[in-house]
Write a structure and sequence with these properties.
Layout: H1 13-24, E1 31-35, E2 45-49, E3 55-57, E4 70-74, E5 78-82, E6 93-97, E7 103-105, E8 118-122, E9 126-130, E10 141-145, E11 151-153, E12 166-170, E13 174-178, E14 190-194, E15 200-202, E16 215-219, E17 223-227, E18 236-240, E19 246-248, E20 261-265, E21 269-273, E22 284-288, E23 294-296, E24 309-313
Antiparallel strand pairs: 1-2, 1-24, 2-3, 4-5, 5-6, 6-7, 8-9, 9-10, 10-11, 12-13, 13-14, 14-15, 16-17, 17-18, 18-19, 20-21, 21-22, 22-23
Length: about 325
């Protein structure tokens, strides 16, 4: 008998998602995956079970030791880790099936070798990888359809050519790409891509300050969180999906940090892991969506690293 855990905290959802698992025969155990990073470049993929925040390290890591990598997930199915710098800049997209954590590498990678992108996903439909460097900064947004892992490139890209941005998504509605670096300045811009037609708008209210090398995570249906960034800073900005209004959490990261990664168990908590504080760290901060309070996991990453990526299996979104 299979067991499927839900991703939302709405009444009855946990039970209905569990029953769906009984019918479908799938096993979905919510978990956060942190992949790659630096220093030195790493192929490691650490997995944190959301049930008890325990960590294991996958026997099969990335297809190459990679930094400046980006992640997104088809929740309940697979995580995708894209681009980055390995022996050189790569267009590789590695896919980890949540059923057994097995890795495959897509036959079609990014539209060009690229690093320092932002990633977000419309779970069940497609992953979006935006911006980055080729080595020049670009506005490109590549879209991977989950039905067959085919790639297309959006006709409308980011509002500016930037790298070192962060992504998060309100699954079923829109992706948000925040912050970044133009090559001469940090930006506070938040671009929003509607999943209905992939049309882009730019929020009237951006980040609380211009910054890059930040991380994003989302409580789908409720809010996106963008944490850390150059300086470094401990800031966590929250954008409510109901009106795209921004607040800044009174409790930020446990330390000022940049070059970190973020992912979330939607309905429960966001996890921000790794990063740089004068050196790489193993720290994983967890923000409970019920009250936005922060705890720091007693078990961090398996090694100190930054310029890593994250993705989450939250079950059905």
């Amino acid at each position: 008998m299979a067991l499927r855990y839900g991703s939302r905290s709405r009444p009855g959802t946990m039970v209905s998602t569990w029953l769906n698992g009984l019918v479908s025969g799938t096993v979905v155990i919510p978990a956060i995956y942190f992949a790659g990073g630096y220093y030195p470049a790493s192929a490691t993929v650490d997995k944190f079970l959301c049930s008890d925040d325990s960590r294991t390290t996958l026997g099969t890591g990335l297809s190459a030791a990679t930094r400046d990598i980006t992640g997104a997930a088809n929740s309940g199915t697979a995580a995708y880790f894209a681009g980055g710098q390995a022996s050189g800049v790569v267009a590789t997209v590695d896919k980890f099936a949540f059923s057994d954590d097995g890795r495959t590498t897509l036959g079609t990678g990014l539209s060009a070798a690229r690093y320092a992108m932002g990633g977000a996903a419309n779970s069940g439909t497609a992953a979006y990888f935006a911006g980055g460097r080729e080595p020049t900064r670009v506005t490109t947004v590549d879209k991977f359809a989950f039905s067959d892992d085919s790639r297309s490139t959006l006709g409308t890209g980011l509002s500016a050519a930037i790298s070192n941005l962060a992504g998060a998504a309100n699954s079923g509605t829109a992706a948000y790409f925040a912050g970044g670096y133009t090559g001469s300045a940090a930006v506070d811009t938040v671009d929003k891509f509607a999943f209905s037609d992939d049309g882009r708008s730019t929020l009237g209210t951006g980040l609380s300050a211009a910054r890059f090398q930040l991380a994003g995570a989302a409580n789908s249906g409720t809010a996106a969180y963008f944490a850390g960034g150059n300086g470094p800073v401990d800031t966590v900005d929250k954008f409510a999906f109901s009106d795209d209004g921004r607040t800044t959490l009174s409790t930020g990261l446990s330390a000022a940090r940049n070059q970190l990664a973020g992912a979330a168990q939607s309905g429960t908590a966001a996890y921000f892991g790794g990063g740089y504080e004068g050196a790489g760290v193993t720290t994983v901060d967890k923000f409970a969506f019920s009250d936005d309070s922060r705890t720091t996991l007693s078990t961090g990453l398996s090694s100190a690293r930054y310029n890593l990526a994250a993705a989450a299996n939250s079950g059905t979104l």
